[in-house]
Amino acid sequence: MSNYRPLVAHEILDALENISDDEDNRERMICILPPHVDPDCPNDEDSGEEDNVTLNNLPRNILLQPAEVSIQGQVSVSDTEEEPSDSTGRTKRRRTYAWRKRDLAKNPVNWPDVQGACQDKRPIEWFENFLDEDVISLLVSESNKYAVKKNLPGDITTEDMKCFIGILLLLKKKECGTLDYRTTHDNTFIIAKWHDNNIFSIASNAVGINPKQSAKRFSQSEKRNIVIEEPHMVAIYNKYMGGVDRSDENISHCRIVIRGKKWYMPLLTHMIDLAKHNAWQLYKINHGKLDHLGFRRSTATALIESNKKNAKRGPSRPSQHEHADSRKDQINHLVIPQSKQTRCRQCHKKCLTRCKKCDVGVCVKCFETYHS
After folding, report:
1. Euclidean distance between CA atoms 372 and 29, whole angstroms
2. Which of 40, 183, 299, 332 makes a 20 to 30 Å CA pair with 214?
3. What is the phi-psi region of residue 102: left when phi exceeds 0, alpha when psi lies from -120 to 50, beta otherwise?
4. Are 205 and 233 in contact (CB under 8 A)?
5. Is the pTM higher than 0.70?
6. How many CA atoms lie less than 13 Å away from 175 in the CB half-sphere?
7. Element (H, E) at 11
8. Are 208 and 216 in contact, with CB atoms under 8 Å apart?
9. Are 368 and 335 in contact (CB under 8 A)?
10. pLDDT category, 227, cuts 50, 70, 90?
């Protein structure tokens, strides 16, 4: 049932005034419902003369009452119209369905036959049904506009775009171990592209692709490890990989991620990542056992614990690893007296001294042992 809102008297009067005399000359009669009268409030319903009432001096409570228009010669549709909603409104009636577990009735369906001879079409012709010349021309046009915007020559042609699409379709479809390489005319520089788990591009002026070596890779199609040929220049690169390449790879695994609108924020975060990576390399040279992520967490914990402002909190059981890094940095650890006796974190005896930085109770005898 649709929502029904009856028109009020002033809306009907405005609509009738906007109708010109030439449009419709039929007689209209407006029926205004009586206003609601509160029995507890005084009213002046008998104070005026009802015979001299005009449309220009109707009171506000009359103009806001629901009204109906009766037009001479109009067919009554009261039997088919929906009943007007009362002041409280009616809930929308929901249609209920009786579901039955049965199949649809079998009606004959005449499916249209395929028009034309399609058996002799090549794969490219099927592909061009979806990526036609109009789409290619649009890609070329928008690519040239973008190139001009970046101060680059916008000389892409339709043939170039089709070749580019073909390269995208062929990309990473070669089997693992595929190798392609080119050398300069004087045979002093070589560029190679080797298909590993990803496309591996490398250039060298010192070593070539021979002698090739064997490498194990997992084949997704065969679901087992297979042996492929690895170029000599790739093996040498992996063997002596270090410095900038190793740094970029390790930093990419654990990078500071922060959204900043300032141009210098990426420079600052990369400087911090680079300093942390170099420190980890020195830590490994000195036979450190932590991995990259563990070293990062240990450094962050030490920085926070050594420089945070300790908030007052209630008594709790001390942790064995509390201040594990900051208490051994030998920076601003001073013995200060305290008014109340607390347990020493080292010998667990009552003491009247504490460490100013660690904010824990430590007796004078155990102060050096606790911070070393």
Report:
1. 104
2. 183
3. beta
4. no
5. no
6. 7
7. helix 9-17
8. no
9. no
10. confident
